[in-house]
Amino acid sequence: MATAPYRIEGATGAWEVVIGLEVHAQVTSEAKLFSGAATAFGAEPNAQVSLVDAAMPGMLPVPNGECIRQAVRTGMAIEAKINKWSRFDRKNYFYADLPQGYQISQLYHPIVGEGALEIELEDGETKTLGIERIHVEQDAGKLMHDQHPTRSYVDLNRSGVALMEIVSRPDMRSPAEAGAYLTKLRAILRYVGSCDGNMDQGSMRADVNVSVRKPGDAFGTRTETKNVNSIRFVMQAIEHEAKRQIAVIEDGGKIVQETRLFNPDTGTTRSMRSKEDAHDYRYFPDPDLLPLVLDDAFLAECRASLPELPDAKRARYEAQGISAYQAKVLTSDVDIARWFDTLLEAGAKPVAAANWVSSELFGALNRLGKEIGESPVSATQAAELLALVADGTLSGTLSKQVFEIMLETGADPSRIVEERGLKQTSDTGAIEAVIADVLAKNPGQLEQYRGGKEALFGFFVGQTMKAMGGKANPAVVNELLKKALG
């Protein structure tokens, strides 16, 4: 059953929200787009600035081939059209953090054309969202207003950093769809390795375009909320901005095309400046840069370098018997997927591995406040632990004990089993002796069981396992108890 469309109720009835996102993703590269300056996060202000980045006279830009390669690979990952011929343009505007007085971007001939992204919503429905283009551009610097009571300082470390601007079609109709789109896009970028997706560090951020209309009407006037740096904040900004626009229209006002800023502390947006159009920037081809011309060999290398992407990996996991839900969780993040693939490559059975990772490993990491990349237990150690369960060396209870010791010490499971004597026993003689003792100590329960209260069978299993410190093979215990109880 299809879910009802997202609507916001106003004084005059229901309104529909129209959303488009422009995602700025910092390209994974050790150098900037047109210079050799470093791009590492957290450096001292102005410590990573070349003469090109600072726009010293006579300095000419030279394109970084790795940045171009990463943009092409990203386009291929969303099955977009790759343009063999593209061109850089100058976007002219004055701002104190823009040393050149213009930004080198791509307006008329982007490197990547139309593509699409399929998202899955919470109710399991899927929706295909259009992507208009991906173009490559250089970032501006950063103004710092909190360093001095009366002055602003400029940090040019980001000046010239390579960005991919990924521009969606206005196909999203709810905050949830926008959240699903960003989540999926971020996962793909991280799988491809073209962006680390660290939104809190600013290496992925979104400009949020929102308009409202009565269902079925033409598009309304949109506003653009700039540089929102978390998926949750994007969803909040959409909801607030849509409600604000509805209130303005219903009060008899008009929406002004403008740029706005989001305040995460209050969950509100405020006006920043009137929205510019392309002609305000006086775009023209950059005279210092030749057009980019990509040959077939370069494109073939880019395609061959792509990893298995989330949707394909998820389908592979499901084909191995893993549940759809677990497959979705295991492929949601590239670090989780790589860890799990290593676990499978080390010999773990897919279904047992998925169950163990979803319950035991994730539970332990959550308790420790660690990401999977920080796990004290490696994937190969986990495979060894699961193998010890599979061959009967460890029971489920014992495996939990061993796992806790692994988390504390980092030791291999076989060594822990050997040193601490935690091996499961299938010695029928020893188990039979314990069963006889348990039955002798519990004559009342034995009489009730033989009188027809068969639910007490679990009581005798528990008592036997307890007496043997959890080391007895449960299957053997069950079999021998059935014989002893008659």
TrEMBL record:
It comes from Sphingomonas vulcanisoli. Belongs to the GatB/GatE family. GatB subfamily. Its EC number is 6.3.5.-. This is Aspartyl/glutamyl-tRNA(Asn/Gln) amidotransferase subunit B. Residues 338-485 form the Asn/Gln amidotransferase domain. InterPro entries: Asn/Gln-tRNA_amidoTrfase_suB/E, Asn/Gln-tRNA_Trfase_suB/E_cat, Asn/Gln_amidotransferase, Asn/Gln_tRNA_amidoTrase-B-like, GatB, GatB_C_1, GatB_Yqey_C_2, Gln-tRNA_amidoTrfase_suB_CS. The keyword Ligase applies. It catalyses: L-aspartyl-tRNA(Asn) + L-glutamine + ATP + H2O = L-asparaginyl-tRNA(Asn) + L-glutamate + ADP + phosphate + 2 H(+); L-glutamyl-tRNA(Gln) + L-glutamine + ATP + H2O = L-glutaminyl-tRNA(Gln) + L-glutamate + ADP + phosphate + H(+). Allows the formation of correctly charged Asn-tRNA(Asn) or Gln-tRNA(Gln) through the transamidation of misacylated Asp-tRNA(Asn) or Glu-tRNA(Gln) in organisms which lack either or both of asparaginyl-tRNA or glutaminyl-tRNA synthetases. The reaction takes place in the presence of glutamine and ATP through an activated phospho-Asp-tRNA(Asn) or phospho-Glu-tRNA(Gln).
